[in-house]
Design a protein that fits this description.
Strand order of the largest sheet: 2-3-1-4
CATH topology: Alpha-Beta Plaits
Distance between the termini: 19 Å
Order of helices and strands: EHEEHHE
Number of strands: 4
Number of domains: 1
Helix content: 25-40%
CATH class: Alpha Beta
Strand content: 25-35%
Number of helices: 3
Oligomer: single chain
Structural class: alpha+beta
Length: 101
């Protein structure tokens, strides 16, 4: 599995626009082949910072999504709302800290 974390910082006046874009795209991303989950997180102190946390079956599934029309369309709508450069990490799970269930 691949765990993908993307940090995005938005202009304060574009946060609602981003939430619309995310809500329009989330179910399509969750149903994309190889996607095993998607979450959106918002900073507690700095409400302009958001993270997406997604889980992919493998790197091939992630790369297929990143090269898909769905990603291109979603990213085009999202990147114009940024006030900073996004950061992304693809990671491996080394230790599971949460109890099962």
């Amino acid at each position: 599995m691949v765990f993908r974390i993307v940090k995005m910082t938005f202009k304060p006046d574009t946060i609602d626009d981003f939430k619309v874009v995310f809500n329009e795209s989330a179910e399509h991303i969750r149903s994309f082949p190889g996607n095993m989950g998607l979450q959106l997180l918002q900073g507690k102190e700095n409400k302009t910072i958001f993270f997406t946390y997604s889980i992919w079956e493998n790197d091939t599934a992630l790369q297929t999504y990143l090269n898909s029309p769905l990603f291109e369309k979603t990213w085009a709508k999202t990147k114009v709302l940024f006030c900073g450069k996004p950061e992304a990490w693809s990671t491996d799970l080394l230790w599971k800290a949460f109890p099962a269930g």
